[in-house]
Write a structure and sequence with these properties.
Elements lengths: L22 E6 L5 E5 L2 E6 L4 E5 L14 E6 L5 E5 L4 E5 L4 E5 L14 E6 L5 E5 L4 E5 L4 E5 L14 E6 L5 E5 L4 E5 L4 E5 L14 E6 L4 E6 L4 E5 L5 E4 L14 E6 L5 E5 L4 E5 L4 E4 L1
Antiparallel strand pairs: 1-2, 2-3, 3-4, 5-6, 6-7, 7-8, 9-10, 10-11, 11-12, 13-14, 14-15, 15-16, 17-18, 18-19, 19-20, 21-22, 22-23, 23-24
């Protein structure tokens, strides 16, 4: 390997360049195509040429109303793309036909999307589509009717969702849904009781979650849950034994985590874990030593 990076930037003089230099999400679909979610919309990259096609998610609209801030892209088992936007709801794109369906929050309609700021999307084993929103809690889409069931925080119910800002979702090997919130930590969904078990940060318990501000979740091939936080690094949890182990930036240790704000995780086929940080670049973890290599 060359260990060299190729940069793709927006060039105002080149309409086939990346649409926007803020990139929130990247998805390689099952056909090998690379979709890029940016602050200015959705792009499809031609890997052979390095050129980008700008995908129209708002047919018939122009100007600011036609621009989406794309925060998350997921593909379901049928091949459709589900795109979460910051402020313009949830979008379903059929890549085969380019047809677009948009789901929005409708004030006064409890069966509509809970909020138009969508930060996480996940399809579970039975085909249910779960949507995490910033301000509208966790939502489950009934695809047959196009309606949503909302799971919101209820201060009177200790088994309700801990917070209505849901930024991350993950599904473990047993089919359990894990929910990351920005304010009340991690929640495990109990499907039978339609309730949540909460895991929060407690300074008096060093094995508890590092922070209640959860920005990213990932379950690796060995079943380990990785939790990226805002400001407190990474918490790692073996779901069989439960206590959390923490990785944080240590100014006195160059082999520690590069930054304590963690946005994303990815795992290679060989099991190497890569982590995207806010201002510390890209990190690779040596699981045997617990040391990090920074890029």
């Amino acid at each position: 390997t060359t260990r060299q990076f190729t940069h793709f930037r927006h060039d105002p003089a080149d309409p086939a360049s990346l649409r926007h230099d803020i990139v929130w999400s990247v998805l390689e679909d099952r056909g090998g195509r690379l979709w890029v979610g940016t602050g200015g919309g959705l792009d499809l990259m031609d890997r052979a040429t390095g050129k980008f096609t700008h995908v129209d998610l708002a047919p018939g609209q122009t100007g600011p109303r036609a621009q989406d801030d794309v925060r998350v892209i997921r593909q379901d088992r049928a091949g459709s793309l589900w795109i979460g936007t910051a402020g313009r709801g949830l979008v379903r794109l059929d890549p085969a036909t380019s047809s677009v369906t948009r789901y929005r929050h409708v004030p006064g309609d409890p069966a509509s999307l809970g909020h138009d700021d969508v930060r996480a999307v996940l399809e579970d084993a039975d085909g249910s589509l779960w949507v995490g929103t910033k301000g509208g809690g966790l939502n489950r889409l009934d695809r047959a009717t196009g309606t949503f069931k909302r799971y919101r925080h209820d201060p009177r119910d200790p088994r309700s969702l801990g917070h209505d800002d849901v930024l991350a979702l993950a599904l473990d090997g047993g089919g359990t849904l894990w929910v990351g919130t920005d304010g009340r930590g991690l929640a495990r969904f109990d499907r039978a009781k339609q309730a949540f078990d909460r895991f929060t940060s407690d300074p008096s318990r060093p094995w508890s979650l590092a922070s209640d501000r959860v920005y990213s979740l990932f379950i690796d091939r060995s079943g380990i849950l990785w939790v990226g936080t805002y400001g407190s690094g990474v918490s790692r949890c073996d779901l069989q034994t439960k206590p959390f182990v923490h990785y944080r930036k240590d100014l006195n240790d160059p082999n520690s985590l590069g930054h304590n704000i963690v946005w994303a995780f990815s795992e290679t086929p060989g099991g190497t874990l890569w982590i995207g940080t806010n201002d510390g670049g890209l990190d690779r973890l040596d699981r045997a030593t617990g040391q990090w290599t920074h890029y």
